[in-house]
Amino acid sequence: MPLTPGTRLGPYEVSAPIGAGGMGEVYRAKDTRLGRDVAVKVLPQHLSSSVEVRARFEREARTISSLNHPHICTLHDVGREGETDYLVMELVEGETLAERLTRGRLPVAEVLRIGAQIADALDRAHRAGVVHRDLKPGNVMLTRSGAKLMDFGLARPTGLAGPSGSGLSRAVSQSPTMAQPLTAEGTIVGTFQYMSPEQLDGKESDARSDLWALGCVLYEMATGKRPFQGATQASLISAIMRDTPRPMTTLDPMSPPALERLVGALLAKDPDERIQTAHDAKLQLEWAAEPGSSSMSSAVVAGDGTLRRTRRDGAVVAWGVAAVSLAAAVAIWFLAPGRGARESGGRLRLTIQAPPGNTVSGASTASALSPDGRTLAVVATDAEGTGRLWLRHLGDLTTRRLDGTEHADQPFWSPDSRWIAFFAEGKLKKIALSGGTPEVLCDAPDPRGGAWGARDVIVFAPIAAGSLFSVAADGGAVTEIVRPDSLRKETALRCPEFLPDGRQFLFVSLPARNGEYDVHVGQIGSHERRQILSAGAAPVYTDPGYLITTHGARLTAQRFDARTATPSGKPMALGEAPLPLSHTGGKAVSASHNGVLAYWSGSLSNTQLQWLDRTGRVQGVLPLPSGRWEQIAISPDGSRAVVSRSSTSTETDLWLVDLVTGQPSRFVFRPTSSAGAPVWSPDGSRVAFSDDPKGRFDIFVKPVNGGETELLYESDVLFKNLYSWSPDGKFLAFEQPDPKTGWDAWVLPLDVDREPVPVVKTPANEGRGWFSPDGRWIVYSSDESGRPELHVQAFPEPSGRVPLDGSATSGTDGAGPCWWSRDGREILFRARLSLRVVAVEPGQAFRAGPARELFQLPEDVVGMCPTPDLTRLLVSVPVQGTAAPALVIDMNWVSELGGP
What is the rounded distance in angstroms from the CA atom of residue 621 to the CA atom of residue 605? Predict the structure, then answer.
């Protein structure tokens, strides 16, 4: 009988069911002694009634509880309450690999990473004498910290079965399983699709049976198909005993040879011919995943449409891929008959990375493919933190930097592929493909995308909130062409995309509705527009008539008539969605006219929180669970922190972290939004944050020690970014955009009226806001001088504005963040990768000394916050081994959609 919430099993209080299977029911429960959530598995009566089974079960449980490994679900306890036997396991949050596979095959890098983690877990268990015997995607949980192997040695009836024909054997053979799609699995021990020939033959299985199952799982991850198929149990067993799986490269041409060789060795019918240890499998997977490994290869489409392979050699890599391979592939693509997005041949995906000595952010707006598909423009940042445009000519071996494009962002091309437009230093500029001096076209203080039409008109969004504007490609007057619709509560229009006629263009409106943005079509010379669909990203048009965007976690293609601007049919999946968009509602890809796509692949890296002293030396690591920890706010007494933890680009929650023990507890949970910008009250009793439950970011507050979340302030303004709480508790400092003045710095009085008051509001971009400990001064950022820098002025009556020495930066990063010491005698701030400090002289007027650099921050720092006395710094940095984002060049993807 299922357990009801509130049922006690020893010290464990059941709260909700999780699932059920042949080895029992699983419940979420609270460990009342330690105050932690756990998973409790209740054994079925037909097993727990046997003394032999219970004794064997307890012996195996003791063995498994010793398997302390990051990729094995931890067994905490075994108990018995009345006639009910149960075991207590680590509660693992995430999705099973089986659930992930319902969305299609995994990228090769993910296959290698997850496969190595599973192999590592198997190796640890095998060394302890534990064999899983039921490894399958349903028993692998994908978490933020990596793969977790579940039911180790427990969900395996063979480990409990007695002699053949015994009552115990019959009871086990009749127990159901949760495996799909065959409903009678379990009549033979395990799950048919992943069982080794020796298991099916009734022989005693050992560690090599787990390796067979590992081969099946790797094959399915890489191809999206099981290696052995059968309509019935008999035909499936026959296929496993007799057949050789279809070559992986016929299902995924980009599957590396090393992976195919490894899977073939794991699926040897004779266990003596198989790879003998999980450790060896792990080493081969890790070796295949190494950058520049010669085991990896790129598929090249030959002129006859067949696939040939060329090895990738790290010694001759240009931007991370063999230049000859890329050049040959693209040259063949353009020179072969029927040039364009064709159905002949297979899909071709190649990856490239940053120019030597530079880094790339992986932001969707950091690259643009030329309309003819021959040249890729990428924003890459050098060691000094300056970003410039680089050109990669895909048809030959050349790569070059475009001088004069310092601080470039969001590039886009002219229709003839001879010019590149980009935003830099508050301006819209253009530069010829051949180089030269960039030309300034007009102002664009805080841009959100642009497009260049066939009639030499550019449509662009010059600021974060407001209308779309147009300007001639040679510069001149700027004209507003479409404005937000107040009746629809729109606040921003952005990310335009011209259709081939050069008159019609697509764009998105903000805020999002149910996680997607309304997509509209407008036209030059008219203020009219109409909505045509909703999507997770701004769409991109490409021949032979598709819109490329995202829906949920998938990159999609949808048929589209460019003449009438009308979509048709349902979106079709092209694969995993690219890396998180750099701007809300931004484009996920860039595309050429002939169907070549470019987008960034990768995933959000896990981070760890490190303590640094004032020289930059690491003093320790906060022992937090694995995850992506980002924004950090330390409490006024320095004992706790609120830290944001992201699971995806749109899913973020806030955690309270004890800075002594590292023990975290969830504080604000918003599974479909982006809680963030935590700010502590002066007495440490509450935390304010911005959140977007209605599609726009409003300001909320929540007590630290329990209580309901309270809405402090809401408005139709889309973004409200919090920065500090005044020491008297009366004001919150935040920034928000205005269609006329750009970003402005504001304070929210926390009295009855709660009507925001601007701190500074000019045509320049101002923002942020940090109060001094005595509340007499406020620091804010401004780009009025042409470069973002920090200024200090009196509060609440503005006077005595003083620029903060050494705070001026360049590019699009802005100035700050900034922190006052508890005694008000120092201001610590960040200027790009430099952490600097100025001494503040006490007195009626604000006076500060020259800036002094403390140290250079890691270039990949994600978040940071100092202790109240500024003696230590808590920083979030990616864990070691995180792969850099890679740019995917995707050709002939139409072949997987069945043609136009």
Answer: 17
Separation between Cα atoms, residue 9 and residue 27, nearest integer Å: 11
Place of tokens 């935390």: 687
CA dihedral (808, 810, 813, 816) in degrees, to 10, reads: -10
Cβ-contact 528, 467 below 8 angstroms:
no
CA distance 412 to 538: 14
Q: Considering only CA atoms, which of 507, 501, 516 is closest in space to residue 481?
A: 507
**How many residues would you count in the chain?**
900
Cα–Cα distance measured from residue 679 to residue 685, given in angstroms and rounded to the nearest whole number: 11
Fold designation for 8-289: Transferase(Phosphotransferase); domain 1 (1.10.510)
Asked if 679 and 723 count as a contact pair (C-beta separation under 8 A), the reply is: yes
Give the strand pairing for 367-369 and 317-318: unpaired
Note whether 805 and 829 are within 8 A (CB). no
Distance CA 606, CA 627 (A): 5
Are 463 and 742 spatial neighbours (Cβ–Cβ below 8 Å)?
Answer: yes
Answer whether 356-599 and 717-850 agree in fold: yes
Nearest to 452 by CA among 622, 314, 590: 590
Q: Which two tokens stand for residue 870?
A: 């500024």
263-267, 287-291, 410-414: which is most confident: 410-414
Q: Please give the full DSSP string across 411-439, using - where no structure is assigned.
A: EEE-TTSSEEEEEETTEEEEEETT----E
Question: Which residues fall within 8 angstroms of residue 498, CB to CB, at 6 or more apart?
Answer: 415, 451, 452, 453, 454, 459, 504, 505, 541
SS3 670: coil
- φ and ψ of 261, to 5 deg: -65, -40
| Alpha helices (runs of H) in 637-696, residue ranges in sequence order | none
Q: Give tens-digit pLDDT for 380-425.
A: 888 777 889 999 888 765 788 999 999 899 999 999 999 999 999 8
DSSP state of 625: P
Please tell me the predicted confidence (pLDDT) of residue 303.
Answer: 31
Strand-pair partners of 829 = 818, 836
d(CA 513, CA 507): 15
Angle value at C-alpha 192, between 87 and 130, nearest 5 degrees: 40
| 3-state SS, one letter per residue, for 60-123 | HHHHHHCCCCCCECCEEEEEEECCEEEEEEECCCCEEHHHHHCCCCCCHHHHHHHHHHHHHHHH
Please give the positions annotated as active site: 134
Tokens of 64: 């498994």
Contact in structure between 479 and 470 (CB atoms under 8 Å): yes
| Domain 717-850 -> CATH class | mainly beta
pLDDT at 156 over 50: no
pLDDT digits (tens, 9 = 90+) for 830-856: 988 889 999 999 888 899 999 999 999
- In the chain, the amino acid numbered 467 is S
List the domain boundaries for the chain. 8-289, 356-599, 717-850
For residue 101, give both structure tokens: 């596979």
Of 138, 122, 38, which is closest to residue 72 (Cα–Cα)?
Answer: 122
Nearest in space to 90 (alpha carbons), one of 136, 47, 26, 45:
26
Homologous superfamily (CATH) of 356-599 is TolB, C-terminal domain (2.120.10.30)
> Strands, DSSP E only, in 772-833?
777-782, 789-794, 802-803, 818-820, 826-831
Phi and psi based region of residue 816 (left: phi greater than 0; alpha: psi -120 to 50; beta: remaining): left
Dihedral class, residue 125 (left if φ above 0, else alpha if ψ from -120 to 50, else beta): alpha
Distances (CA, A) of 237 to 185, 199, 240, 636: 11, 11, 5, 65
State pTM to two decimals: 0.60
Are 378 and 390 contacting, i.e. CB atoms less than 8 angstroms apart? yes
Q: Tell me how far apart the alpha carbons of residues 612 and 620 are, in angstroms, rounded to a whole number.
A: 8
